[in-house]
Amino acid sequence: MLVERFVGYHQTLCMPGAAVSSIYPASDVIARRRRFAYHVRLDVAVLEVFESAGYAVLYALLYVVMLAGVVIIPFGIPGQFLIVAAGAGFALLAGTQVLSWWTVLVLAGLAAGAELLEAVAGFLGATSAKGSFWSSIGAVIGGLVGAIVGSMMAPVIGSLLGAFGGTFAGAFMVEYSRTSALAESSQVARGALIGRIVASILKVFIAIVMIVVITLALIY
Fold this sequence. Notes:
- The protein has eight helices and no strands.
- The chain has helices spanning 2-13, 17-23, 26-72, 80-94, 101-128, 133-153, 157-179, 182-219.
- The protein is elongated and about 95 Å long.
- The two termini are 39 Å apart.
- Residues 1-13 and 15-21 have low confidence and may be disordered.
């Protein structure tokens, strides 16, 4: 309809002067030109409103993705990479002059660092509880295996319980196989579990920082 309206007015306005004056009085031609300019401005304003509404919807969806990424982190799912993907989406929508690709790369580095932190948390926890190097390795491997097995049994909560249970079991079994000391092995396993839980909390904090970085880039 916008195209038809534009073509109709354009055909009238582009007629030779004599032809226009023979069909329309001069005052009518001026009035038609004014109506044409008004309708063009109105149509442009409507298109701008629809365009702004579309951007608002896309921005809202990307924020939902980022918040979902934060929510799933405690369940053993690397949701911080969803935030990186949302950051890339913002860079495409808002332009790299608002959110640069260097910022997206920094976000990716934070996401990878958070994942590495969680992976070695059990190792550090077991070491702090005076566990051996191999019991710390057992905590790391146990956490990974537990998360995989748990996700097969229950995609969300199973990953969380499997990661925590696997961290404890991995550290305990390795330490007990070395020392045959139940109390000491339990202490090492608890240290590994606490380290993993603290790492999950830090991982959520890093994810929130990533969202703040994106928000500040969009605002300023």
